[in-house]
Amino acid sequence: MLGGIGLFLLGMTMLTNGLKELAGDALKKWLNRFTGGTISSVLSGALMTMLVQSSTATTLITIGFVSAGLLTFVQSIGVIIGANIGSTSTGWIISLIGFKINMQTMSLPFIALGVFVQLLAPRDYKAIGGLFTGFGLLFLGIDILQGGMAAVQDKIPFDAFDANSISGKLILIVLGLVMTVIMQASSAAIAATLTALYAGAIDFEQAAYLVIGQNIGTTATALFAAIGASTAAKRTAATHVLFNVVTAIIVTLGATFIFTFTEFITKSINGSFDETLGIAIFHTLFSVIGAIIFMPFVRLFAKLIERMIPEKGNHLTRNLDDSVTKLPGVAVEVSFNTLQEITKELTTVLIALIRGKKRTAEIENQLTQIDDAIEKTRLFMDAIQSSSKKERSKHIALLHALDHLYRLSKALRVQSPNTFQLQDALTQQWLEVLEKVLVIIDEDERLPEIANLLEATSSEMATVRRDKRNAYFEHTVENVVELEIAASKVEALLWIDGLVYHYWRTTARLAEYQTFTKKGRHTETEKAHTATAE
Asked: pTM for this one?
């Protein structure tokens, strides 16, 4: 029995990984495009989960999108509600196909085909092999699980858990919860429940209460993932928990009515009451009832979660969630948004230093947060493994931007702000540029404009540096200026020139990232137009 569950889990993991690898980028674009209002968010979450056969994968992508600023928290709630509905598809597949045919006869050819594709096919097609192997192992696991369940049913006192008593219902719900926590996959727990029901080890009502517990237990994965994660991940996990727990309470209280409704739907579809199909329908009704209850109050629900889990820590790194690094496309976008935030914060610090000519406690705190954010972004980006050519180019551009931000922050630490007074005219010229930049830095499409403005400023600074440096030393030779004063002014020139240069190169690399992104979108639009024309 345990071996069957293990094979099922292995198959589900391979199937999910294969689907994610084949459709990862497409899923990201599709979710971004079709997640608008609450209804479209729910539909997107449901369809996406049906496609990848993993509500955890959908939740992970959703967290990434919220972190990247591509989805609002309100939209993410809709996607998670949809993911709960989509996760019920596994039960439908098992009940409609799994018990109707000889699973070993069907699974072994899939495993053979999948392994040969993985061994012999080109690298780009190996994921297809994983998909076939996973599909075969999934059904082979159910076949072995059936044999194990038939042998073990007499040894486990299922009769002791009476679904008609309150204590029996609670025990069954807790058992379902524990099953999912141990297996770390609600799909495997539901497969085991369906197999036990098919083998006659448990009756329909016992299976239904186990499913209620399994729906609560599926939130454990999200809770474990949220430990030490970003605020976005914690809020997403809380959404998952509250949705499933509240729905479980409502469904348990109205179980008698829902059982009758389940029987009616099953007979309408099948002609007679098929218990395994009935559990698949009951599981779907569980999630649909929850969706109907929560959807009208999504915004109020979002405010409640935000109040329960307020934003904490460094606001610059609030979106850096380690779990997102498993999705390179999303992780790179999160990195871009974080670097843009750090650049904006540095801009405000530079303006404050130039105006005040001294480091206040507030500026020191800002610089500390910037240094911390740069280090955390470095660690986050180090964990990203970009595979596609386009993502690699964007990733490299951002690493350059990060390096220039690090040098800029370091330069601000090694020199006193009083140095700005030694080159007052140059400093005022740069201040005007920084004030212009601060107004438009949040607008992604204007990054090339910012980069061009700073390139011109940096070029002017470099020319002034060369001319003035020579002039200062000439004045020293002519005894017009003392060498110590001339050296201080030259040092100030070099320092300010370095600051301007690193600031320009940061924005230039961020603009380069935007250019790569626009090219990708332009290519996709052209392909779509070509396909329409054809």
From this structure: 0.65
